[in-house]
Amino acid sequence: MKKKPISFKGGLEKVPEHQIYLNINHLENGTYILKIMHNNKVIKSTTFQKPE
């Protein structure tokens, strides 16, 4: 049986600076895909892995 991918969505109010920090301390080990969207279109997609 294939594992169904889990998707989490989040939103931000107006950010005072032009930097966003993603803290991965509480994520499980594994590979993640981060997609940055603007006007419902993906403008940047990156993959990262949280090591054990």
Core attributes:
52 residues; mainly beta; 2 strands
* Average pLDDT metric: 85
Decide which structural class fits the backbone. Answer: mainly beta
Quaternary structure classification: single chain
> Which residues sit in consecutive blocks of at least 5 with pLDDT less than 50?
none
Largest sheet features = 2 strands, antiparallel
Measured on Cα atoms, how large is the radius of gyration?
13 Å
Sketch the topology as an H/E string, one letter per element: EE
Bin the strand percentage.
35-45%
Give the termini separation: 25 Å
What is the β-strand count? Answer: 2
- Percent range of helical residues: under 10%
- Describe the global form: extended
Q: How many distinct helices?
A: 0
Strand order of the largest sheet: 1-2
Please give a quick description of this structure:
With 52 residues, this protein is mainly beta. It has strands spanning 30-38, 41-50.
